[in-house]
């Protein structure tokens, strides 16, 4: 059995930031792996192999396997290797038993220290390898965010997003090269950063943490509670309306790490709100209309969850090969042959199914399913006040929606699954 790979965290000040145990592991390593910047921080040793990360990084598993075959392997990583670092990748690749992690002080800890912010009153958001649109979910007046940036272009992208979202006065602090002799700091506001000369923006430090104190008025669609206003979504009318959507999400019950299928997704509203409930939730929107599929992707970015996966295709065929869901919402197409059966069969034990229907055909299907399988059957009618004749107001009813919700149980047999 190969010896564990040791991942040693190292700060911008080099070996001074590494504890005695970490320095001993580095000294005894037969193979030293890391980024060129990290390798340059450690004096060379005779007989020790050194290799920088491969490009593309997809070949990393082979590189690590080859290194382990040649002796003791130490990987150098920034600060805490498990904070958006290579340590996380290696644990996922090799398993926790095969990886020893020796962290140094992380850039997040240094940033909190420079800002005087406690862990309890600030949140860490990573944009390393991620769409900057994901920051939108975290924006609310008064929030303190520590953003792990991808490179020197990130502050400009974040400033543009903040201004677009109505948070132009947000304080932005670029904390560059934390812990290094050349450590720097720039305080500005989002709107002011965009006024800088393009050369000044390009000259921002590549390695930095971005501290944000969000200011400006909050939009009415920034809440994490289910039931965002309908106008928060671009749509052609195929949209689960606010009150009905909130009820569906309550029954779908988003939980950390759980996956939702949003079948016949329309505008993608249910899948998007599922993702907004927690940063580790996952969702796949299945939509047959190409214009709607493109619109779903735009809505997801605009509402801060660009990680929504959109599958263009018609259920049930489009469901083949998708990962097993924890919950399924059918907002359209439930009466198509095989859709309801395929969604029920796909659910794992304890999985939640919610189906909405407005046509007689779908209603009949749901009445039969409730009679045969149980669950909860609800008819939802919503009326809103609207002007009548210019002088009065009255109730305007929306189309009634029949909702069937059901939970899969492993102990059930036959039709009960």
Total DSSP E strands = 19
Low-confidence segments, given as residue ranges, are 412-417
**Rg, alpha carbons:** 26 Å
Question: Spatial order of the strands in the main sheet?
Answer: 13-12-11-14-15-19-16
Protein structure class? alpha/beta
Helix content: 25-40%
Distance between the termini: 44 Å
Count of individual helical segments: 13
List the helices and strands and how they pair.
Layout: E1 5-10, H1 20-28, E2 31-34, H2 36-39, E3 49-52, H3 60-68, E4 73-78, H4 86-94, E5 99-102, H5 107-115, E6 123-126, E7 144-148, H6 154-164, E8 171-176, E9 184-189, H7 190-193, H8 198-202, E10 208-213, H9 242-252, E11 259-263, H10 269-276, E12 282-287, H11 290-302, E13 309-312, E14 327-330, H12 339-346, E15 352-357, H13 360-373, E16 376-380, E17 383-388, E18 392-397, E19 401-407
Parallel strand pairs: 1-4, 1-5, 2-3, 2-4, 6-7, 11-12, 11-14, 12-13, 14-15
Antiparallel strand pairs: 7-10, 8-9, 8-10, 15-19, 16-19, 17-18
Question: What can you tell me about this protein's structure?
Answer:
- The chain is α/β, with parallel strands linked by helices and 417 residues long.
- Helix content is 27%, strand content 24%.
- A seven-stranded mixed beta sheet has the order 13-12-11-14-15-19-16, with helices on both faces. It has a five-stranded parallel beta sheet with strand order 3-2-4-1-5, sandwiched between helices.
- Strand 14, helix 12 and strand 15 form a beta-alpha-beta unit.
- The relative contact order is 0.08.
């Amino acid at each position: 059995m190969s010896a564990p790979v040791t991942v040693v965290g190292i700060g911008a000040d080099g070996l001074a930031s590494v504890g005695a145990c970490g320095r001993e592991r580095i000294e005894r390593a037969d193979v030293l792996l890391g980024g060129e910047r990290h390798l340059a921080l450690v004096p060379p040793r005779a007989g020790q192999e050194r290799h920088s990360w491969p490009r593309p990084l997809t070949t990393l598993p082979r590189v690590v396997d080859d290194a382990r075959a040649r002796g003791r392997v130490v990987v150098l990583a920034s600060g805490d290797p498990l904070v958006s670092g290579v340590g996380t990748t290696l644990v996922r690749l090799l398993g926790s038993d095969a990886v020893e992690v020796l962290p140094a002080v992380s850039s997040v800890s240094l940033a909190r220290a420079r800002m005087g912010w406690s862990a309890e009153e600030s949140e860490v958001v990573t944009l390393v390898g991620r769409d900057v649109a994901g920051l939108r979910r975290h924006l609310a007046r008064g929030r303190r965010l520590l953003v792990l940036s991808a490179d020197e272009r990130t502050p400009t992208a974040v400033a543009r997003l903040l201004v677009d979202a109505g948070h132009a006065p947000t304080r932005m602090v670029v904390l560059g090269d934390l812990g290094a002799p050349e450590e720097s700091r720039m305080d500005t506001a989002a709107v002011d950063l965009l006024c800088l000369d393009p050369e000044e923006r390009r000259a921002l430090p590549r390695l930095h943490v971005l501290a944000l104190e969000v200011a400006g008025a909050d939009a009415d669609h920034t809440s994490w509670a289910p039931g965002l206003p309908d106008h928060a979504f671009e749509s052609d009318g195929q949209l689960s309306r606010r009150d009905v959507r909130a009820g569906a999400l309550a029954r779908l019950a988003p939980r950390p790490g759980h996956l939702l299928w949003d079948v016949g997704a329309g505008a993608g509203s249910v899948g998007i709100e599922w993702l907004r409930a927690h940063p580790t939730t996952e969702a796949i929107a299945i939509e047959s209309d190409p214009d709607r599929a493109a619109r779903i992707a735009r809505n997801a970015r605009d509402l801060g969850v660009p990680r929504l996966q959109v599958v263009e295709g018609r259920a049930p065929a489009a469901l083949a090969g998708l990962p097993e869901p924890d919950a399924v919402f059918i907002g359209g197409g439930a009466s198509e042959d095989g859709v309801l059966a395929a969604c029920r069969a796909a659910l794992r034990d304890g999985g939640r199914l919610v189906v909405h229907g407005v046509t007689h055909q779908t209603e009949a299907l749901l009445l039969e399913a409730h009679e045969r399988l149980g669950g909860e059957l609800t008819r939802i009618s919503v009326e809103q006040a609207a002007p009548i004749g210019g002088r009065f107001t009255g109730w305007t009813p929306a189309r009634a929606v029949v909702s069937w919700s059901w939970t899969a149980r492993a102990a059930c047999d036959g039709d009960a699954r």
